[in-house]
Specification:
- The complex is a heterodimer.
- Helix content of chain A is 27%, strand content 24%.
- Chain A is of the alpha+beta class.
- Chain A has four domains: 225 residues, 3-Layer(bba) Sandwich (FAD/NAD(P)-binding domain), CATH 3.50.50; 133 residues, D-Amino Acid Oxidase, Chain A, domain 2 (2-Layer Sandwich); 32 residues; 117 residues, Alpha-Beta Plaits, CATH 3.30.70.
- In chain A, strands 1, 2, 7, 8, 9, 12, 18 and 19 form an eight-stranded mixed β-sheet that branches. In chain A, strands 5-4-14-15-16-13-17 form a seven-stranded mixed β-sheet. Chain A has a two-stranded antiparallel sheet with strand order 3-6.
- The radius of gyration of chain A is 23 Å and the shape is globular.
- Chain A starts with 5 loop residues before the first strand and ends in a 14-residue tail after the last strand.
- Chain B is α/β, with parallel strands linked by helices.
- Chain B folds into three domains: 226 residues, HUPs (Rossmann fold); 160 residues, TPP-binding domain (Rossmann fold, 3-Layer(aba) Sandwich); 213 residues, HUPs (Rossmann fold, 3-Layer(aba) Sandwich).
- Chain B has 17 helices and 35 strands.
- Chain B has a ten-stranded mixed β-sheet, sandwiched between helices. Chain B has a seven-stranded parallel β-sheet with strand order 24-28-23-18-21-22-29.
- In chain B, a hairpin with a 4-residue loop joins strand 25 and strand 26.
- Chain B is globular and about 75 Å long.
- Classes of the chains: A alpha+beta, B alpha/beta.
- At the A-B interface, strand 11 and helix 14 of A face helix 1 and helix 5 of B.
Chain lengths: 552, 648
């Protein structure tokens, strides 16, 4: 076979989400401003820009004015402007609308949006500015020289399940870059390697995540107003479980609904997707969806460890931005504006580094300084202890949050630590509470009108994976996995997975085996986060594989 | 003398995304476009040839709107070097004849003619998912005047200027040797297309695609576009298909579960309903003059295909519509059958007894196996003399390449894969004239969701008929007819393609397409190497049912079954009367491959399995328990309500 092709660029951006695209746009602008002509390459694993993007979303628009000076907000494809924002406390039998807003959660004046559509728009802007965008390519290896990052390589294709080369084998392309910007989004698979190699999370809190499952519906006129948004607390979650629901009224009688649950829950049989279906059956949610139909389904995790979980953001020749860096502010679960801002700050840093011809760690340290002096810090620092405060449940969490509000974020206990999410799952033998299936007995029969099983939902995600490739979900140690995940925990993968990738197969002799239907994978990364014993590693499958979100 | 490899591709809407809109019409606007799946196998075949001939030049060509640019660039990103697009509004509405003509004209313009000094090979997909005709490769070959092999699974160059192609035929395959230049069309069963590389994508981004209009290549408007095409789509109606919810078997053990299944099957109810939506009533027949465009052509010519020394069943089936059309056309309309082969004289009486009025025989030892070049030439000569108004072919792998090659010679175009053939009339409101009588060829299209009526205005009006659609006409012992023979004029050029080997055996892809019952095993059935799956299919066969076995993708991955047995790979769809899915979870790709089955029975131990959402009848249980019970019932005569086929 031919030798591996190499392409060279000045800047390589891995990931075409809001942070990567903002970085590309601002970098192109900054370089132009400096009179420099440099090549910017942006690589996205999704088949098209936006196809792997999923968010609520309610967006704070101000940052777009910074990113795209001279562009009117009306030109950006936001959805409805938020006109009513309510928080609702759900219980099993009813609901109460809270007469006040949880601090940091008022959204009047913000915009609802399909983040995927926003990204498509940003990609057009970036391309206009000369950024080369290539979609459908998976990058699975960081290139190093003398211990320093010098770029990345796209995945080899044409391999069978065992990794043997088939007749249509194609080696990946080496991309050598002066600066590589990691913008992979939540739980980036390369970012994870980078953090590990350079120990970037030293002395930091463990990053913790939530999983959000989302459905987009078309509903009859009058069910909900465009720009009317609700956040729900309480049912079906209990005090041990952090999270809540969202209902965003969109233009053209569409509505985005979803449930976001902290992955530090204890019950190994907890199922966020199914919990969301139960949530939809509450009278409050079901009346909004009544008479409507499901358009799309998707799921994604989001990092919510906050300030203390942000890794070191730079090494020689490389920067980390957006969700990969953990820029999400709680309790509003807002990260889009921070992702864009971080992309811009990284761009500014990179532009300076390129013009000084110095891309060393020392030069790129400017990025951290810029972040610390920006609204990213202003947004995240006051709530630096928010999420950890909820580790012991919502009542204790509420207390912590209260003290944090008084003390400017410190609370009465200083920095609160966090545990990795997979460590909080209880063994079957330890679980005292009712397991998920008993807890929602009678509510898990899905009627395919209001509620859907995973198989039906994932059909509405457009998910596709090439059949010929190495399964992209790696069980690190099969024996250990069987002994711990299956025997002690009852294979939580089969429940937490948002898209029915994992099936616990029990043959007639009672032999148990975890089967992997990788073709269903939504790229939410929950398995990489929540498998007991850190048992599963998510690696990127072939480029263009995964969901095909249209308006998520 | 470097080799040039030319790939012809078409951009089509993603078949799985072609959803039915609320108005019952196929919504193509929302579907994304891709390179037609079969064409991507052609692209890969070209890249494989390049591996063998590293000096060769890779060219990709297409015809269509400017948006086809995307498909061409994808080909470049896979490794092609140059791209050409024939794009002209005047080509809009072209039928396959006009398309073949236009593409061939572009290739000739690029210097690829019959007499080119440098060797070249033209690769194409077998057929497109939106047209489904498989005509264009044959028509391009005929128009340039070079040999062809269609339905090819793999192609290699032999190092001496020839190519060796493995051609799929009913129940087996043929190894053929073709000289270059030639046209090869690829089935989606060969080497799957490679993924683009980033370096390729960068090259594609910067490449200039050469775009031609018809004037650039010297193509006139007489024979292209809507007005120039010999055939038109006169009418399209929707076929509504809907699968009602599953009926699950009830019972406490395998025996009662199977009893319950049999009872449910008897009740029926759950059958894929295909309704032909009511066609809007035509306004009154206007008072235009009638026009008989046949110009003296008369009679119906059919082809009797010989396989294993016998007339193939689909060729006998053809006599049903042929006789029917002859009756509709009125007294004096003759059904003629052309039979080409080695020692076939004795088969003539069979054809006559099934409905032929005259059997025209061409006998030669060289014709033991079908060969497209001499056969199409013989047809051309017979048509010239006999002047039939209609020519019918069974839509077999041979019929589907022979008919379009002939249609190019006679300038009459072809309608592919018909399920209905009737005589009607066509009211031309523009010309204010009524064409009558005219052959109405009806064919399902757009993934069986529509039924299109195609008309041809040049005689002979040529159609191929889908195998299995028409019954074999009743044999009338002692029916009288004429047996004549013809000595055609053939030259060496008609025999440049050599058949190296013909293998017809058990199993294989084609049988899967024709089986009435397909028993399919998934990952859950590999513990006994599909033993029970095969046993159930075998038991059905011993009852005289045309049954086959297949499997889902993981089974092939595990090496338990060969690829040709796999259902659900992109591009492979089967439509048996009954599909029995055993131990198949129902991944989306698999469902897409079998959902067109008339009836589906699912057997799986996992009640949550997606397959149950896509089946009519279901049993929840272990296959090791259920299948032996089912096999016993089949041995006792139960055939799932499918009539055993009687040998012809």
């Amino acid at each position: 076979m031919s030798n591996v092709d190499t392409v060279t660029t000045d800047v390589l951006i891995i990931g075409g989400g809001p942070s990567g695209l903002a970085s590309a746009i601002h970098l192109a602008d900054s370089l132009k401003h400096k009179g420099l002509i440099q090549r910017i390459l942006l690589i996205e694993k999704g088949g098209s820009i936006g196809s792997h993007i999923l968010s609520g979303a309610v967006i704070k628009p101000e940052v777009f004015k910074e990113l795209l000076p001279g562009v009117e907000l009306s030109e950006i494809p936001f959805n409805a402007k938020v006109i009513k924002d309510s928080t609702v406390l759900l219980s099993k039998n009813g609901n109460i609308t809270l007469p006040f807003h949880i601090p940091y959660m008022n959204n009047i004046g913000n915009y609802t949006a399909s983040l995927g559509q926003i990204c498509k728009y940003l990609a057009i802007k970036a391309a206009e500015k000369g950024v080369e965008i290539y979609t459908g390519f998976a990058v699975d290896e960081i290139l190093y020289k003398d211990g320093k990052v010098i770029g990345a390589k796209t995945k080899d294709t044409g391999l069978d399940h065992h990794g043997n080369q088939l007749e249509n084998f194609q080696p990946g392309t080496r991309i050598e870059a002066k600066i590589t910007i990691f913008a992979e989004g939540t739980r980036g698979s390369l970012t994870k390697m980078l953090i590990k190699k350079f120990n970037l999370d030293k002395d930091k809190n463990e990053q913790v995540y939530s999983l959000g499952c989302k459905e987009l519906w078309s509903v009859p006129q009058g069910n909900i107003e465009a720009g009317q948004i609700y956040h729900t607390m309480g049912y079906p979650l209990n005090n041990d479980e952090f999270g809540g629901g969202f209902i965003y009224g969109l233009n053209d009688n569409k509505v985005a609904v979803g449930l976001v649950v902290g992955l530090d829950y204890k019950d190994p049989s907890f199922d966020v997707h199914d919990a969301m279906q139960v949530w939809k059956t509450t009278s409050f949610v079901s009346k909004i969806l009544k008479g409507g139909r499901l358009l799309e389904y998707g799921a994604k995790t989001l990092p919510e460890g906050g300030h203390y979980a942000i890794p070191k953001l730079y090494v020689d020749n490389a920067l980390i931005i957006g969700d990969s860096a953990g820029f999400v502010t709680m309790p509003a679960l807002k990260g889009i504006h921070l992702a864009i801002k971080s992309g811009m700050l990284a761009a500014k840093t990179a532009a300076n580094a390129l013009s000084n011809n110095d891309t060393s760690e020392k030069s790129l340290q400017q990025y951290e300084t810029l972040v610390n002096n920006s609204m990213i810090h202003d947004d995240m620092y006051p709530v630096r202890n928010f999420r950890q405060g909820f580790a012991k449940g919502t009542i204790v969490g509420g207390f912590h949050f209260g003290t944090q509000l008084i003390s400017g974020g410190a609370g009465f206990f200083g920095r609160l630590r966090s545990h990795a999410d997979y460590q909080t799952t209880q063994k079957l033998s330890e679980l005292k509470a009712k397991p998920f299936k008993e807890r929602f007995k009678g509510k898990l029969e899905f009627d395919k009108v209001l509620t859907f099983d995973k198989a039906t939902d994932i059909y509405h995600s457009g998910v596709y994976h090439d059949e010929q490739q190495v399964v992209h979900l790696h069980i690190k140690d099969q024996e250990k996995f069987n002994a711990i995940n299956i025997e002690q925990y009852g294979a939580p993968e089969q429940f937490f997975c948002s898209s029915e990738v994992y099936e616990l197969h029990i043959n007639k002799d009672g032999k148990k085996e975890l089967r992997i239907h990788a073709e269903n994978c939504m790229h939410c990364k929950t398995c990489d986060i929540k498998s007991p014993g850190d048992g599963i590693t998510w690696v990127v499958p072939n480029g263009g594989n995964g969901p095909d979100f249209q308006n998520m | 003398m470097a080799l040039t490899i030319i790939s012809l591709i078409k951009q089509v809407p993603v078949p799985s995304e072609m959803r039915m809109g609320e108005d019952g019409l196929m919504d193509r606007t929302k579907a994304k476009s891709i390179i037609n799946i079969d064409c991507t196998f052609g692209l890969e075949a070209g890249l494989q040839l390049k591996k063998q001939n590293p000096e060769s030049r890779l060219i990709v060509c297409s015809m269509g709107p400017g948006s086809f640019d995307v498909a061409l660039r994808t080909a470049i990103s896979m490794g092609y070097d140059e791209a050409y697009l024939l794009s002209d509004r005047k080509l809009g509405g072209s039928d396959t004849y006009a398309t073949g003509l236009a593409i061939a004209t572009m290739l000739k313009h690029l210097g690829f003619t019959k007499d080119s000094k440098d060797p070249y090979i033209i690769l194409a997909g077998r057929q497109t998912s939106d047209g489904d005709t498989a005509h264009v490769p044959s028509q391009v070959a005929e128009n340039i005047g070079i040999p062809q092999a269609t339905f090819v699974e793999s192609v290699k160059s032999d190092g001496t200027g020839n190519v060796i192609a493995k051609r799929i035929i009913e129940g087996g395959y043929q190894m053929m040797k073709l000289p270059m230049p030639c046209v090869i069309s690829l089935t989606p069963t060969g080497i799957p297309p490679r993924k683009p590389t980033l370096s390729g994508a960068i090259k594609a981004r910067n490449l200039k695609i050469t775009t031609f209009g018809i004037d650039d290549i010297g193509l006139g408007t007489e024979k292209i576009g809507i007005s120039g095409s010999p055939t038109i789509v006169a009418k399209v109606i929707n076929i509504v298909s809907e699968r009602p919810p599953i009926t699950l078997s009830e019972g406490h053990n395998e025996a009662s579960l199977v009893d319950s299944l049999i009872a449910n099957l008897k009740k029926g109810g759950n059958v894929l309903v295909k309704k032909e939506a009511e066609a809007k009533k035509d306004t009154e027949r206007p008072d235009f003059p009638e026009k008989d465009f046949r110009d003296g052509s008369s009679g119906i010519l059919t082809w009797a295909e010989i396989t294993n020394g016998n007339v193939s069943r689909p060729s006998l089936e053809l006599l049903t519509p042929a006789r029917n059309l002859a009756t509709q056309l009125g007294v004096g309309t003759k059904v003629m059958t052309l039979m080409i082969g080695k020692n076939v004289q004795h088969l003539a009486q069979t054809l006559i007894e099934h409905g032929s009025d005259e059997v025209i025989i061409v006998e030669d030892d060289k014709f033991e196996e079908y060969l497209v070049l001499p056969f199409s030439s013989i047809f051309e000569q017979v048509i010239k003399v006999r002047k039939p108004e209609i020519a019918l072919f069974a839509a077999t792998t041979s019929g589907r390449e022979l008919a379009p090659r002939i249609g190019m010679k006679t300038d009459s175009g072809v309608t592919a894969d018909c399920t209905g053939l009737e005589i009607g009339e066509y009211v031309d409101k523009k010309e204010k004239v009524i064409y009558t009588p005219i052959l109405e060829s009806r064919r399902p299209t757009y993934g069986e969701s529509k039924l299109a009526t195609i008309l041809g205005f040049v005689c002979p009006q040529i159609s191929t008929a889908r195998a299995g659609t028409f019954e074999v006409p009743k044999r009338v012992e002692g029916r009288q007819g004429i047996v004549s023979s013809v000595k055609p004029v053939l030259n060496d050029q008609d025999f440049v393609v050599e058949i190296l080997k013909t293998v017809r055996g058990e199993g294989g892809l084609q049988n899967l397409f024709e089986a009435d019952i397909i028993v399919s095993g998934g990952r859950g059935t590999t513990t006994d190497n599909l033993g029970l799956i095969k046993a159930l299919a075998e038991a059905l066969r011993s009852q005289g049912v045309n049954a086959e076995w297949s499997c889902s993708r993981p089974v092939v991955d595990e090496g338990v079954a060969e690829y040709a047995r796999q259902v659900g790979q992109t591009g492979k769809t089967i439509r048996p009367k009954l599909y029995i899915a055993v131990g198949i979870s129902g991944a989306i790709q698999h469902i897409a491959g079998m959902k067109e089955a008339e009836k589906i029975i699912a057997i799986d131990h996992n009640p949550k399995a997606n397959i149950f959402h896509n089946a009519d009848f279901g049993i929840i249980g272990e296959y090791q328990d259920i299948l032996p019970e089912l096999i016993d019932r089949v041995k006792a005569g139960f055939t799932f309500g499918i009539e055993p086929k009687k040998e012809v």
